[in-house]
Each structure stands twice: as C-alpha cells, then as structure tokens.
Specification:
The protein is α/β, with parallel strands linked by helices and about 500 residues long. It has 2 domains: about 5-130 and about 230-430, Rossmann fold (3-Layer(aba) Sandwich), CATH 3.40.50; about 135-220 and about 440-504, no CATH class. The protein is built from 20 helices and 12 strands. A 12-stranded mixed β-sheet has the order 2-1-12-11-10-3-9-8-4-7-5-6. The two termini are about 45 Å apart.
Length: about 500
C-alpha cells in the first residue's frame, strides 16, 4: 500500500464520526489538497477546549470566523473576545470571488455566502450591549484574588462583606466598596472592631490603592447594575442559528487587569449558574479568547490558579473555551494540558528563541508518518494549519495539514453605521444599557455618617455613652464571623473542592 493510499485511509477513518460534526476544511499532503478528505470536528467533544495558534498573518482570525459560523449553523451560541476589532463582519453576508471558488472546488466542498445573528457587547466605552457585574456577585474570595491581596488584606475584605451582609448594605459598584472601606477605617471603626475584631489601617490603605489601580483601568464601567445574565449569551434566532456574541475590546489592550477581571468573573458566573451536562451530544456555549496572553501575562498567581481551576471544571457544564495566541508557550502548561483541539498555523523562525518555541510546539502533536512536524510548521501558507482533535471516544485524531474553508460572512469589519444599527435594534440593549444607581452602601453610609455628626453636635455626651454600651453588648467576634453567611459560603466552597479532589 503506497503512502497516498495509507494517508487517505488514515484521514477518512480518523475524521469520520457517528454523531454530528462541523467541517472546517480539507486534508493536504505534499502541498496538494486531497478532494473529499474533509477535516471534521465532532460536536460531542467541543467542550474539551482548544488552542488556535500561529504567527501574525497566518489566518487565525479567519479560522475563528469559520468555527463560529459552523457552530452557529448547528445552533450552538458563541462568545468571542474581539481584541483587534476583526470579527464584526460576521453580521453581514460575504462575497464570492475566484480564489474562494477555486479553493472550495479543490476540496470538493460546497460554498455559499451568509450573514449570521450577532450581538455586539462591551465592558468599556465601545458601542455595544453593556456587560456589568456587582461587587456582591464576586464575593470576598474572588474579589480579593482579583486585587491580588495577601491573607490579612483578604480577611479585611471578608469582614467588609460580612458587615454589609449584616446591615443590609448592597455592594454594587466600586464607590460602594470604597465608602464601606473608609467607614470601617474611620467613623465605624469602633463598631466593626467590637463585632468582628481589629482592622489594620495599613491593610485598608493597601486595599484602597488596589481599588484605585483597578479604577484607572476603567473598572468603574464594569461594576454596577444591571448585572448581565449569562443565559442571554446562549440564544438562538428564529431560524435555529446560534447567536455569535462579539465582545468589543479594542480599547482595553493596555488594560489587562480589567480584561482578566472580566474573564474571571464571566467564567465563575457561567460555572456557578450552568447545570451539569454530563456526556452531552453538543456544547451549550463556545468561548473564543483572542490574544490569550493578555489574561496570563500579568495575572497574579492566585488569579491564575483560579482561572486554571475553572477551566478544568467548566467543561462538565457544556462550555468549551478556545485560546487564540501567536505561540502556544503563551498559555501555561497546566492549561495547555486541558486542551483537546489544536489548530496550529505557521510559526516563523527568526531567532533562537523562535526555533526553541517551534521545537516545543512540534512536540505537542501526535506522532505522524506523513509529515515532519518541526519542518511543516514553518512552511504552511496562510489559511493552512496542523490540526488534531479529540474523537468521540476522547482519543486524538491523526495529525493532518488542513486547508481551511473560507468564511461565509464578510471578511472585513462593519462600518460605524452598521454597528449602530445592530446595537440600536438589539433587545439586549434595551435590557442592559439603561444605567441604574439605586440606594446602596454608598448612600446608606453617607446618611448614617451625616446623622451621627448631627447627633454629636446636638448631644455631645451621647458619644461617650455609646462607647460604654458597645463594650457591654459586644458579641464574641470569632463567633460572629463563623456564624456569618459569608463565612459559611466560603467554608462550603472549600469543602466542596476537597471532596471533588478526593472523588477524582
């Protein structure tokens, strides 16, 4: 049996599946596209996460566009992080040209142009449906990790949340958190210390500086109401096409803290809200994270550990996460180990560091008799990629050089008028883009301080009497904390993780 026949048998058997699948392109051998040898990905294993890597200009953006279109056609919603502003054209029908026609004829793969249902989202000043989350929804543990606090500072944050729980003070945005932090340091210090224990002003000062750093990256636009319901990411239109939700992030490339804060919040919310799916036939949602290094480069160790943990667990909820980056080494090894699908576009060897990265990347793929992986990885053209996926049994498919199909939608961005039309006609815009600033911790504590100041002016002797009363009526601080809702939530969360680890 000659090499071509062996290759044909290997690819056709390796990429044929019993269940439903999407087709991303055709197989290539010795720089020739082999007709009718389609590269398919089973829907069943799309929740096993994936990596799309390659040098600038090798076709990663169009690959994401193709994947999103094919998923939408199967009724699977998509959320993509659009860092460079490349994806909005998915909302408009593409155009057919000679290059596309010839490419698809060589694969014997039909082609048609099509527009897809799109929602444009924003966490910054970009035009789109506003995504927000409240401080309370983060909780003390997650919020402390975002701020990269030490154990002592995290303890202060837990007390702050507990005080707000006990006194019905909603923590909605950063001004609520700052006001409460200032209150427990100054006017409410005696009250809080009698109830929960001593609080260091050095710790509260450090926390405040971390909050200011977050504010400087634009986080005040993200924290607040109305909180975004993650179920609004999982919609299909009247034709049964999954919505492609494009989060416009072109203005936060230099604000990685805000980006990682949002991503951790989103993943935690999706994980907590979605039910267990078990061995489902297709995923509930696929998330594409472009320029993935922005999450990992400046993430603290605690934040990185939290992201890694969620990625490991979230696939059981029917969620697949796909990281897009120039080099696989941008993604931590502990995360790479969780990724079942790999689409590797060409890498360029300009330096010794590049050559080492190419060698390392080549070793991440299954062995193959049809390609010299470390050589072909530098020789592929635009729109070509090394591909391996997980089959329905969870086994990696044979490594293949794939010629990617062309996107069906526009391969260019929308103009401002087209963007305005999508945003203004969206049902989600009416739901989320009306700002709400209801009575919360900031307003309540401001009134409390004003009333106390007025009372002190009118009745100066009351202050000393209140101090005496507080000393005689103090509840044991330790008992107060361990019986709190905040402490119990945290304890059960830790216990749950321990039990899960033992069961595994």
């Amino acid at each position: 049996m000659n090499n071509n026949v062996t290759f044909s048998k290997t690819i056709q058997e390796g990429y044929s599946f019993k269940g439903d699948y999407i087709t991303i392109g055709g197989a290539q051998l010795q720089n020739e596209i082999i007709p009718n040898h389609f590269i398919n990905i089973p829907l069943k294993t799309l929740n096993r996460h994936g990596l799309i890597a390659g040098a600038t200009g090798t076709g990663k953006t169009k690959t994401i566009q193709v994947l999103s279109e094919q998923l939408s056609l199967k009724g699977i919603p998509v959320l993509m992080m659009d860092i460079k502003g490349d994806f909005s054209g998915i909302a408009q029908e593409g155009s057919i040209n000679e290059f596309i026609t010839n490419r698809h004829q060589s694969m014997n793969l039909p082609y048609s142009s099509k527009a897809f249902p799109v929602e444009l989202l924003s966490i910054s000043e970009e035009n789109g449906v506003r995504l927000r989350s409240t401080i309370s929804e983060f909780g003390p543990v997650l919020f402390s990790r975002i701020l990269d606090l030490n154990d002592t500072q995290s303890g202060v944050v837990s007390i702050l949340f507990k005080y707000c729980d006990d006194n019905n003070l909603p923590l909605l945005d950063l001004k609520d958190f700052k006001k409460t932090l200032q209150f427990i340091t100054n006017e409410g210090k005696t009250e809080v210390e009698n109830l929960y224990g001593r609080i260091s002003t050095a710790s509260t000062g450090s926390i405040l500086r971390k909050i200011i750093e977050l504010e400087q990256q634009g986080a005040e636009l993200f924290f607040g109401e109305t909180s975004f319901d993650i179920k609004d990411l999982m919609r299909v239109n009247e034709e049964g096409l999954g919505y492609i939700n494009i989060l416009r992030l072109t203005d936060i490339q230099d604000r990685p803290k805000l980006f990682s804060t949002f991503m951790l919040s989103l993943l935690a919310e999706v994980y907590s809200e979605m039910p267990e799916q078990g061995d489902a036939e297709q995923p509930e949602l696929i998330i594409f994270i472009d320029e993935a290094h922005l999450i990992f480069d400046q993430a603290s160790k605690a934040l990185l550990n939290q992201i890694e943990t969620i990625i490991k667990l979230i696939r059981s909820k029917g969620i697949g996460i796909y990281f897009i980056t120039q080099n696989p080494t941008d993604v931590p090894n502990s995360v790479l180990a969780q990724l079942g699908l790999k689409i590797q576009h060409a890498l360029r060897a300009f330096t010794e560091k590049d050559r080492k990265a190419i060698k390392s990347s080549s070793e991440n793929f299954p062995n193959t008799e049809f390609y010299k992986t470390n050589e072909i990885i530098t020789q592929m053209g635009t729109g070509e990629a090394l591909v391996t996926v997980l089959n329905e049994k969870g086994i990696p498919t044979p490594l293949v050089v794939c010629t990617l199909r062309s996107p069906m939608s526009r391969m260019n961005i929308l103009n401002p008028q087209e963007i305005d039309n999508i945003v203004s006609n969206s049902k989600l815009t009416r739901k989320y883009n009306t700002p709400i600033d209801r009575d919360s911790a900031y307003e309540m504590l401001t009134r409390k301080i004003d009333q106390a100041n007025q009372q002190e002016v009118a009745f100066p002797e009351t202050k000393s009497q209140n101090k005496t009363s507080q000393k005689t009526n103090t509840i044991n601080p330790i008992l107060k904390v361990i019986t709190s809702a905040t402490f119990i939530r945290g304890a059960f969360g830790i216990l749950n993780k321990v039990l899960n680890k033992k069961s595994r």
